[in-house]
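Continuing the series of single-chain predictions for the mutant panel. This is the parent chain; the variants come on the following pages.
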Amino acid sequence: MSERAGIRRKRPGSLALALLLATGGCNGADGTRNGADTVTDPVALMIRSADGRDHGFTVEVAADEFSQQRGLMGRTALAGNGGMLFPFPVPRMASFWMKDTPLPLDLIFIRPDGTIAAILPGQPDDLHPIAAGEPVSAVLEINRGRAAALGLAPGDKVQWGDCARPPARHNVILPTMPWQPDRFCPAGPD
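Parent structure:
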């Protein structure tokens, strides 16, 4: 994929930071970055609106801190049903800005239960923080006005990745489900 542009990192909690640092050495011994940012291959993302309609998107997943800091910076176009997803290993208070981002965007803040907490506008190159005011598991950025055109609203349900396959098995020693940035399948359709 071409240049990853994105937005900004939001002050990670200490647990989230520890998880990010433990996931595979982004920096070499000399402090240089090993490899490119971790933006996954596009994944399917579905939003089910209150009227029961499903709205599909194909999104890039900014899976590490470096990718999340860059987000959509410098991008001048985004596919109509495209977007970028910023998942977090643990829910947190996420705050975005639009530094060096020439695209007007809708920022969709997603709660841990998969419901939309807020849909907020992002103005090109604006440095004011954009936040939902509650902990979220992810933020989705799509073209500005797309959410309104589809009738998306807070409370609509979001999932992404291959939700048809069974989830990863629990580990007896660490019983929590492993974090998968490219898969988010909250229980229950409605």
